[in-house]
Write a structure and sequence with these properties.
The chain has three helices and five strands. It is an alpha+beta fold and 130 residues long.
Length: 130
């Protein structure tokens, strides 16, 4: 998979892949989330895909289900050192599925990549501008 990252103006940076474009921006006049906010949101939304799939496979309604994601930063480095995902379910959600719901959210591909991060290689290459 390839993505094209470009710079449409001001502090905006966009990622293009397939038929999609992810817009990012920086404060103070941000018109889109920051790249880091998009990254963090990918964790909860990925877990959400697995929760949704779990419920759909069992014919369970998803109305009233949501995931609350909390980030905890290190007071020393300022980096995120812990992320909590709380799957909130309505009182009608069957108790027998709660542990399985957690296990399904833990299958998230984003989470797995954070647990076993890829190697990064950053290079430059000169190209002709059309």
């Amino acid at each position: 998979m390839e993505m094209i990252i470009d710079f449409p103006g001001d502090l905006r940076v966009d990622a293009h892949f397939g038929q999609f474009t992810v817009h990012t921006d920086q404060p103070p006049a941000a018109s889109a989330p920051t790249p880091f906010a998009v990254f963090l949101s990918s964790i909860g939304t990925c877990a959400g895909i697995y929760v949704l799939g779990f419920c759909r496979q069992r014919g369970l309604p998803t109305e009233g289900i949501r995931i609350l994601q909390r980030m905890h930063n290190s007071p020393f480095s300022g980096l995120v050192e812990k992320i909590d995902l709380e799957i909130q379910v309505p009182p009608t959600f069957p108790e027998k599925y709660r542990d399985s719901l957690i296990r399904s959210a833990e299958l998230c591909a984003v989470k797995k990549h954070l647990e076993q991060p890829p190697v990064f290689e950053v290079t430059t290459r000169e190209v002709q501008v059309a």
